[in-house]
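Kindly review this protein for my students:
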Amino acid sequence: NSIDRQIGFLTKKAKSNERGIKEELNLLTRLLNNLSDGIAVRDANFTDVDENRIRLLNLLSAKPILYVCNVGEKAAGTGNELSERVAAYADQKGTGFVFISAKIEAEISQLRDEHEKIEFLETIGLKETGLARLIQAGYSLLNLITYYTAGPNEARAWTVAQGTRAHEAAGRIHSDFERGFICAETITGSDYLSLGGEAAARLEGKLRQEGKDYIIQEGDVILYRFNV
């Protein structure tokens, strides 16, 4: 496997006394022993330095897990006994869980009009689709959030990691935005929707100017000011 190959490669390099090789070998040996004992990488504790090294290995057992249960139509809003057992196991493992009804999702996918989808969900007592909950669970598990840019012609959603600073998020759109960052004119998503857009939010004093170290929040609507 990939760890065995890495150990073999580093064992040869260790003879050169290159800095850091011994630490990497020790880490790989620990990983191999854990896997041999049935302990996934995600379930073991490591230092921040070791976690960065492990991330570069791209190991499957280091990836987070999201358990998805398919339930019947009647249990689409509440789950059932079996899904509750899976939920308890996921909680014990500290990982993600969601249940959906594949049959209902298939029916929803056949509806082209958004109003029809909403009416269909209301008739069966659901507030949102299973697909929407699945996406939300995935974002939560991966520590991702969404912010928006909106103009007269289009609105765009951008995905960034939680804790991303304003100038870094700007770089997701274009490197010039990050390089020449001046400020981020920011409106919360709820204010943007309730007031009907940027102009009204500005008049109501709900638009604020944030600097490059501002931490992007879920649902923010942002206009970047930059100069290059």
